[in-house]
Amino acid sequence: MLSFLYTYLTNLPRWHLVAIVLVGYLVYYLMEVVKRPILAVSDGPFKKYLRKHIPTLEHKFWPTFWCVESRAQTVFASILRSNIMPAIEYRRQVLTLKDGGQVALDWLETGCDPESPIIIILPGLTGESQAEYIKCLVTAANRAGIRTVVFTNRGLGGVALKTPRLYCASNCEDLSEVVRHVRQAHPHVRMGVTGISMGGLILGNYLARKSDEAKSILTAATIISVPWDVHKGCASIEQPILNNLLGRHLASSLCRTVSKYDILRGEEFEWDMNQVLQSKTIKQFDSAFTSKHFGYKDVESYYSDATLHNKLHQIKVPLLCLSAADDPFQPLDAIPVKAAAKSSHVAILITARGGHIGFLEGWWPANKDQYMGRLFSQYFAATLFDPDNEFYRTMQLMMEHNLTASTSVPGSPKVQTPPPPPSPPVAAASAIRKKSIPF
Question: From the Swiss-Prot or TrEMBL record, what is one GO molecular function term (predicted)?
């Protein structure tokens, strides 16, 4: 028997070997890669509404068969979308902020009703409105009949830098001005907002720090591939070798951005631009420039202020988040699953694979209907159109659920339920161990 097996293996036909490898990989793919996403949110009105109105939540995520590794998902998603998504013709609005700085608001309203809902979209670290992942979301919203406006940060997207100030993950003042501006220009429509990667950090800090303002203006929000714990996210992106290459690419993009502006050079500034431009990692750049630019004593203080995993309890706008368990920018154990499981307003959907802003699916992921865009459009179509005001009633129940939870501790003061906001027409976070999620 053993001699027969030895003879067979030593004379194995090539097609037999190929078949064995393919069958083995198929078994691995079906057992270890294809998983039903985990939805972390408290058992309450928000979870019931999501389960009822977003079909994507109920389906397994089938990553592209030949592209399941996290870095591959991250890189190939960018390459493929860049080639299949044509440039979008936006209507550009340059908004001058109260300090004289300028940002770009790029509108896509083609084919949408003049009174249709609006979604404000915040790109990632150095992204702008023609970034491939932004075009993916904008296109998905446009197919659903929702208007979008991409908020491009100072110094990006071809807008002149009028003041010696850029942007950072912890500062949400510019976003607050943009949200109030859009609301003032469109007072009678429902509004949503989305942040991707670092844009998600800015959005999350806005929703937490200006929770009452956000609740009075916004109906719903989403965050995609956000680095929940910036300390751990930064450490993860510096891991050798592939993660570090991605981080170096982003650091290089940051250096190119600041190098364009003479207004950021001068002896009156605390930073040395020559040292800044030598940064090889994001943390080196933030240490040499960003933390000093925004008045932090060091980069650790900046990251602590920017991080989101301990702020979920402050958020009052219904927020759906999409994260991948293998995101190279954010380790799984830093996703605040336990905090989300206690939250009435924050839901985190975690896929087993997907990388960073990847989420490629299908044998050849060249179609425009991809997982990230589909989840995005289903959520906002359900929350922003809301013809029967079901989501509006759900939000009232969510507020009651939140108040009940906050007063359930013995000895806590009674809180009167505030009146719900008018409907427009038409616990501290705790990381989990990887073994507690069945991926």
Answer: acetylesterase activity
Mean pLDDT calculated for residue range 24-37: 94
Mean pLDDT of 239-254: 94
Name the active-site residue from 229, 356, 377, 401.
Answer: 356
323, 327, 345, 377: which one is catalytic? 327
Verify whether residue 197 is a known catalytic residue: yes
What is the reported pLDDT for 14? 74
- 326 catalytic residue (yes or no): no
pLDDT confidence bin for 312, thresholds 50/70/90: very high
Q: Is the pLDDT of residue 131 over 70?
A: yes
Report percent pLDDT > 70 for the chain. 89
pTM: 0.90
Whether the pLDDT of residue 431 is over 60: the answer is no
- pLDDT of res. 9: 59
Q: How far is CA 194 from CA 134, 211, 218, in A?
A: 10, 15, 11
Examine the residue annotation and report whether 356 is marked as an active-site residue of this protein. yes
pLDDT at 6: 65
User: Around Cβ 386, how many Cβ atoms within 10 Å?
Assistant: 22
144 has a pLDDT exceeding 60: yes
